[in-house]
Amino acid sequence: MAAFWTGVLGSCAAGAAQPATILVLGDSLSAEYGLRRGSGWVALLEQRLAREKIAARVVNASISGETTSGGRSRLPALLSQHRPSHLVLELGGNDALRGLPLTMTQDNLSWMTQAAQKAGAKVLLVGMQVPPNYGADYARRFAALFVQVARAQKAAVVPFLLQGVADGPDPTRLFQPDRIHPREEAHPIMLGNVWPELKKLLS
Q1: 170: helix, strand or coil
Q2: Does the structure show a pLDDT above 50 at 2?
Q3: Among candidates 120, 117, 196, which has minimal Cα distance to 158?
Q4: Interatomic CA distance for residues 108 and 114, integer angstroms
Q5: HSE on the CB side for 108, CA within 13 Å?
Q6: 39, 69, 82, 181: which is the annotated catalytic residue?
Q7: Which domains does the chain have, with CATH numbers?
Q8: Is residue 86 flagged as an active site residue?
Q9: DSSP annotation string for 100-128
Q10: Can 187 be counted among the known catalytic residues?
C-alpha cells in the first residue's frame, strides 16, 4: 500500500512540474522585424522566465504582416501541435492598417480566444492603437475592442503594447525609419507592458 501511495504522489508531483507552454501568435511587432535575432520582446520574455526561474517554454508563431484572419486560420493547427497552456494574442494592427472592418477584427479575436480557452489555454490579449489620422472615431473604437473582447471572454488584456514607446514626447526616437516598427531599445519597454499581466496568468 505504501508503494502505491508513493507512486501516486510521485506521479502528481511530476504532473505539477510540467512546464508551461506559452504560444505567442502575433505580427511583425512580435516577429523581430528589422531587428537582430534574439532582441525582440518575445526573446526577452524567454530570458525573463529563465531569470525568474519560471518553468516555461515559449513558442513564437508570429509572422510579419499577419492579420487576425490569418491568425484565425493558423490557430487550430498550432493548438493541436503545441498544446499551449497560455496564448499571447498580439494581432489586429495590420487589420487597422488595411482599413478592415472593426467587426471582423473583433469577431476573429473573440473566436481565437474561445478556441484557445476550449483547448485549455489561458489567454492574454495584447492591444494596439492606430494614429489619429485614421479618424478619431475609428481610432477610439479600434483601441477599445481589445478590452471589450477580453471582458466578454473573461481573458486577460494589455490595452496597448506600445505604451511608453509610441506615446512618449519624441516617439520617432524609438522607431525604425518606417515609423511603424519599434527599434531594438523599445522592446524591453514592450515586454514591460506584457510581463505583469502574463506573470499573473503563470502564477
Answers
A1: coil
A2: no
A3: 196
A4: 10
A5: 23
A6: 181
A7: 19-202 (3.40.50.1110)
A8: no
A9: --HHHHHHHHHHHHHHHHHTT-EEEEE--
A10: no
Q: How far apart are CA 113 and CA 100, in angstroms?
A: 20
Query: Is residue 81's pLDDT more than 90?
Result: yes
Which of 80, 137, 178, 203 does the annotation list as catalytic?
A: 178
Q: pTM for this one?
A: 0.91
Output the nine-digit C-alpha cell for 165: 514607446
Report the range of poorest mean pLDDT among 57-66, 153-162, 166-175, 182-191: 166-175
Query: In what order do the strands lie in the sheet containing 20-26?
Result: 56-60, 20-26, 86-90, 122-126, 156-158
Task: Please identify which of the residues 27, 28, 95, 187 carries the catalytic annotation.
Answer: 28
Cα distance between residue 136 and residue 121, in whole Å: 35
User: Can 167 be counted among the known catalytic residues?
Assistant: no
15: pLDDT strictly greater than 60 = no
**Exposure letters 55-93 (e unless 16+ CB within 10 A, then b):** ebebbbbbbeebbbbbbbeebeebbeebebbbbbbbbbb
Taking the mean position of all CA atoms in its chain, how far away is CA 53?
A: 21
4, exposed or middle or buried, with CB in 10 Å at 0-12, 13-18, 19+? exposed
